[in-house]
Specification:
seven-stranded mixed beta sheet, TIM Barrel, eight-stranded parallel beta sheet, 10 helices
């Protein structure tokens, strides 16, 4: 049994002062008034990132192994991430299968923080492919369906372009217990709405690589903003969307429907300034990643940085920014044991200082990061 006493606790809904959290067998057993000394910091629910390509100097596409997953999680845990969907961008079916095998091994071994997999592609739109390799963009086939139908991968999320994946196919994916997101698409609003009606529930990196909102053709952006039921991942790094565009999304979507995501690449948690992506190089300039054509190529954003940006640059209330990083992703992924600090939930927690910097993080009560050892 562990006990952690803090000056402030946010349980996902309410702030409490001077409390102790009792943890046993990886679960939160009780929250009680503190009776002794407390740490002067804020304990909040662990962050859940549904789009993580890499970190710690490794990229999942380049090395789809359980060790890569462990390295990624360790890198991101210092920034408050306690659960993630390692993300495979458009690639060959053989690479996708190797990535799935690595996730299955990690989940079977109860590797901390790995809760599923996100296949971002390969069923995307060539005009909106971004840095995804065109040679691997393809139609949905029996091979991919067999992969998406596996029952050993935890949470399965697939991003598709609805002009290339029909409503019938989306219903088929949903029947395989796949969470379907829409993205990398040039579809018109009617096509996007049909995909939502067929069971798609989310949008991948809102505004980026999707047909824009105009006065007479709302595009994917328009449907994403207008639909009250779907979730949208947002990359709050100051590069993927203008602050005003971010504020439009915050105003348009109901509370609970925007999720902070990183789209993080391998340099997160390192000083690396360059890495290989397929046949090219991606370069880091400060906190921005671009390929040789100058296109954005993921990010070096971390979840704590996204929370800080929401609070400090977009005037999002701290409790709402924290929910965007924890509770709302948990609801989107249908993981009712994550996203809160209440009795019965998994003890995934982050300790933050007054500047929203991470001091410590825990997964299932196991300490993953301590700032003094960084």
């Amino acid at each position: 049994m562990q006990q952690l006493s803090v000056s402030r606790l946010f349980d996902g809904a309410t702030w409490f002062d001077n409390v102790s959290v009792v943890i046993e067998h990886g679960l939160i057993q009780a929250i009680t008034p503190a009776t002794g000394p407390v740490q002067q910091a804020s304990l909040v629910p662990g962050f859940i990132d549904v789009q993580v390509n890499g970190g710690g100097g490794v990229l999942f596409n380049n090395s789809p192994t359980p060790q890569t997953l462990a390295t990624m999680l360790q890198a991101h845990s210092q920034f408050g991430t306690t659960a993630m969907l390692p993300t495979v961008i458009t690639d060959s079916i053989a690479l996708m299968q190797r990535a799935a095998d690595a996730v299955a091994v990690a989940i079977a071994a109860k590797q901390p923080g790995i809760i599923g997999v996100h296949f971002e592609g390969p069923h995307l739109s060539v005009p909106k492919k971004g840095v995804h390799p065109q040679q691997h963009i393809r139609q949905l086939s029996a091979d991919e369906l067999a992969l998406y139908g596996r029952n050993d991968l935890g949470i399965k999320l697939v991003t598709v372009a609805p002009e290339n994946v029909s409503p019938a196919q989306i219903r088929q994916l949903v029947g395989l217990k796949v969470i379907v997101c829409l993205g990398h698409s040039n579809a018109d609003a009617t096509t996007v709405q049909a995909a939502l009606d067929a069971g798609a529930t989310g949008f991948t990196h809102l505004y980026n690589a999707m047909s824009p909102l105009t006065s007479r053709e709302p595009g994917m952006v328009g449907v994403a903003l207008a639909d009250p039921h779907s979730w949208c991942g947002v990359i709050f790094d100051g590069h993927h969307m203008h602050p005003l565009a971010a504020k439009v999304a915050l105003a348009a979507k109901p509370a609970g429907k925007l999720l902070l995501v990183t789209d993080a690449m391998s340099p997160v948690g390192t000083a690396d300034t360059e890495f290989d992506l397929f046949d090219g190089k991606v370069s880091r300039h400060g906190d921005k990643l671009t390929d040789k054509e100058g296109r954005l190529a993921g990010s070096v954003l971390d979840m704590a940085g996204a929370v800080r940006y929401a609070i400090q640059s977009l005037d999002v209330a701290p409790d709402e920014a924290l929910r965007m990083a924890s509770l709302y992703p948990a609801q989107f992924l249908h993981t009712p044991h994550l996203g809160r600090i209440v009795a019965g939930y998994q003890a995934d927690m982050v300790l933050l200082d007054d500047s929203w910097q991470v001091l410590q993080s825990w997964i299932g009560g196991q300490q993953m990061f301590h700032a003094e050892s960084a």
